[in-house]
Amino acid sequence: MAHPTEDKNFRLPTSIRPRRYAATLTLDLDAKSFSGQQTIDLDVSAPSNELILHGIALALSDVTFRAGGQSRKPASIQPVAVSETVVLRFDEALPAGAASLDVTWTGRFTEGLRGLYQAGKVAATQFEAADARRLFPCFDEPAFKARWALTVRVPRGLTVLGNGPVVKETQEGPLRAVTFQETEVLSSYLIALVVGPLVGTDAQDVQGVPVRTWALPEKAHLTRFGQDAALAVLPRLQDYFGLPYAFTKVDQVGIPDFEAGAMENAGLITYREVALLLDPATAPLSVKKRVAEVVTHELAHQWFGNWVTMVWWDDLWLNEAFATWMAFKIVDQWRPEWRMWLDFDAHRASALHLDALKSTHPIHGEVRNAGEAGESFDAITYEKGGAVLRMIEGFLGEGPFREGIRQYMRKHARANAVKEDLWNALGEAAGQPVEELATAWVGQSGFPLVTAKLDGRGLSLSQRRFYTEPGVRSGETWPVPVVLRYEDATGVREQRVLLRDAQATVKLEGEGEVKWLTANAGSTGFYRVAYDKPGMEKLAANLKALAPSERISLLADQWALVRAGEASVADLLDLAGRFGDEEDDSVLDELVGRLAYIESRLTDGEDQVRFRAWIEKLLGPGLKKLGWQPVQGEADRVRLRRASLVRAVGGIARGQDALAEARPRVERMLQGERDALEPNLLDAAVGMVARAGDAALFDTILQKIPSEPDPATQRRYLLALTAFEAPELTERARGLLYTDTVKTQDVSSFVAGLLGNRVGRDAWWAQMRTQWKDVVARTGGAPMLLRRIVEAMGLLRTREHLEQMQALLKAHPIPEAQQATAQTLERLSQDVALRERCTSEVSAWLKRQP
Description:
Strand order of the largest sheet: 5-4-8-2-1-11-14-13
Oligomer: single chain
Number of strands: 30
CATH class of the domain at 1-197: Mainly Beta
CATH topology of the domain at 1-197: Immunoglobulin-like
Number of helices: 26
Helix content: 40-55%
Radius of gyration: 28 Å
């Protein structure tokens, strides 16, 4: 085994394991420092002269090993930066058996959004993947589960939250000592503390579990929806797993500055405020759905991740894919009118896009160290993983799949597991060869393009790996659970086929002519489909017969084929032109997304003007018919359709009538008139009005940001500042990046907004390259934000931009974002090539339009 002094991929030896931590922490919030003392109960299975803990920037001052009634001090205490460990060396071998380690140490708050850090008025922890070692000397790998008994000493007058309920409080001069109930066995990354002037909802009981939602006092009125979501989904999760909730309480806390969306700490779930807090009266439905989904995702983790935990970070997907899939499933049960699975399709699209790159990675891949674990928090792990679980559930059936999950939970309770344990449980419950299906999809990167060609009642299917780079080929195949849906003389039918080989011929059931056929019914399969010309014409002529998810896939798959050089952009635009009377908001969102890309990247000058006019002609009548003002009792789906049309006509086409309608409404909204804009129109309307706005509007929005309590509204205003296209205002927006106006958590989003501004892009890109170290420093070293900064550069447009980005990241690489760098460069390279290949084709198509 490699030694920690020489290997950053070092893993702790398993011969010494913790059973229980009993720790007291004293926090000095003014000095941003802390001190600690703890006793770790240990099991030593083999004698050793060394005891190795994780620790970063911790000064250990007093260490004692105790076993068999004897105590001994280490001969040396050696911090090792490369492996983030502290090596304790003893003159004599430590004996096997039960033992304990007493440790005293000091440290400082982390400058950044991990470890123990300051977020405005709040001190909070964020330990996943491997930052508990910034606060505790500990065994900071997920396989080392132990009980934790914590006491925290803080200044009086502050709320103190931990994983368990408070069991004791004492006053110690100016400090208050708060002792929490000892936890169940937990991995170190799931321990959490939050300290600050927080207020909570009243505790509400769910089958014996108290639930509370916390925020800063000025945001207390925004906690109700997140609280209600937790109350609604917690019993549904207990029912699904067939196991009670294990962690005594649920506290949900909005943190003012937070790297991720949320973190599933056992019993103490921390959130970026925008993912938890909202005003139901003014929040767009998309914000409500997002909060409900995130709350459910984190609560699902209390079983899948916290109760049964991965052994190592290569199985991170076991946590995240399952929680992703489960969140949509449970919220769909709670609010079926929200049609959450159509939102899931939009999430899945990001994974399909990423997984078609050569630089993708398998759902389950090698992770050598904690830094590499951080790069696994992406669309492949979450969305592809969730889509594959959904596909497997569809293959096994809901009942057998759930029974397999329950068996897995019971068998590995309080312990760690690997992916094979899950496949075994599912296979046993379903009596099906799950491992064959799962291993191919989880262990192999990429996905297939299934080609479907109809000849009478015979259907030829073939598969090959799909790449978006034209001309790239490889020979992988998958066991593809293809679900066919088609209409013939007997009506609409479904037929299932497991496509194992590169090619197969299927005889369709039923009789008579096949009027149309889709080869991914309900879009539940993680693959793309290519139809021959007659098959595509039949589908295009029968769009209303297709489910919304199938219409979305038809557009998305055709666009992917355009990117891969296997279909023409003209054919895609002809297909898009058939959606002018589309009434489903989710389908419209897909259409608008495709049109936005073409307008921004594949048109210039007069062609851009013509294309905007074509969009307004296609979708403007729908907006005119609906109008901007909702009628009383109007359904959410109608409101969302209006929002899609406003994005298309006002946002992409830059229609002057739409701008004239939006501007006074936005002005009245900024003056406090709550009903001036229907909530679902806020993002699009504020963005388009800001784009054409003047200095007075810029000042108005800027002044509202600090005092705005609603996090979604505050974020909307912040990003609106990056949209102004008056040159002097683009310059002002750039300067704000280095001010307190932009919180650390919002740095990458703000950079993306600046790079997306067509007038200010080049000036900001030049400045960004010269100030690269300052831009990187603004993230506070947060790995997720660093990756998003790199990904934001995918908004660049030209070959010159691409070459400049390549040179920048070669000269100043971001070690935490190696994967994101490769993926973003590959994707931008393809975008540039597509622009060079298709601009003239779009121009020719526009000239043919009446």
